[in-house]
Amino acid sequence: MLPASSGFIFRLKNTFSAMDAPKRLLIDGYNLLNSRSFPTPAHLDLEGQRDHLARVLNSYAAKKNLRVTLVFDNSQKPSREVSRHKRLKIMFSAPGQEADDLIKKLIRQEKTPAELTVVSSDRAIRFAAKDHGVSSLSSEEFCSLMRSDGGSGSSAVTAAQVAKYESEMGEEEVQFWKNLFERKRRDE
Fold first, then answer.
1. Residue range 36-80, pLDDT digits in tens
2. Which one, of 56, 3, 25, 12, lies nearest residue 134 by Cα?
3. Using CA atoms, how far apart are residues 155 and 150, in angstroms rounded to an integer?
4. For the structural domain made of 6-187, what CATH number should be given?
5. Residues 6+ apart with CB under 8 A from 7
6. Which DSSP string corresponds to 74-124?
7. CA dist 102 → 44, 74, 84 (Å)
8. DSSP β-ladder status, 24-28 and 67-72
9. 131 Cβ partners below 8 Å, 6+ apart?
10. How many CB atoms lie under 10 A from the CB of residue 74?
11. Burial 168-179 (b: 16+ CB within 10 A, else e)
């Protein structure tokens, strides 16, 4: 766990500010999603968790005037860009390629490294970022930064927001509704 002291948050904010307020974030999706610092509703399946993360990051990007590229390992999805919002681009690695490899490739291709910050706790990714003049934050540091921004994205990742998505339905009832909607989608 990261220290919750105000000194830690102050240093983290100063670090982020000293980076000339990066204009873009390159985020290791599953690394952030699996961080202990990023709460996700327990009842969501993997796709639901990715959607939740995308909503949180899209909101944060809008409030902080950032562009975010969120990279995931390929999961039976088309390779490369899958979804693009105004401020959030979601990419999946190509079949047989790990997201880490795609992130490192994007770091190597970066033309303006001072404008980019990589978010990952993966040491190899952070070393690649450092080697190419790109700043980086661990997933835990990034979550702390979002929470400390006083509503600038933090409201989307608080325990209260997670509780909003919690369901009182049992697993069988959830599965029933999923099956029903899936059948309806196929019939359309």
1. 889 888 888 888 899 999 999 998 998 889 999 999 988 665 544
2. 25
3. 8
4. 3.40.50
5. none
6. -SSS-SEEEEE-SSEEEEEPPTT--HHHHHHHHHHH-S-GGGEEEE---HH
7. 26, 11, 17
8. parallel
9. none
10. 19
11. eeeeeeeeeeee
- Residue 172 CB contacts under 8 Å (≥ 6 apart), including other chains: none
User: What tokens does 126 get?
Assistant: 């952070």
Q: Where are the domains of the chain?
A: 6-187
List C-alpha distances in Å: 90 to 7, 147, 171: 34, 22, 29
Sign of the alpha-carbon dihedral angle for 168, 171, 176, 179: positive
Query: Torsions phi, psi of 91, nearest 5?
Result: -125, 145
Contact 99, 72 (CB under 8 A): yes
* Cα separation, 73 vs 92, whole angstroms: 5
3-state SS, residue 1 = coil
Of 66-70, 81-85, 98-102, the one with minimum mean pLDDT is: 81-85
pTM, rounded to two decimals: 0.69
Tokens 């401020």 found at: 87
Helix axis angle for 6-18 and 139-148, nearest 10°, is: 100
Specify the pairing of strand 80-84 against strand 67-72: unpaired
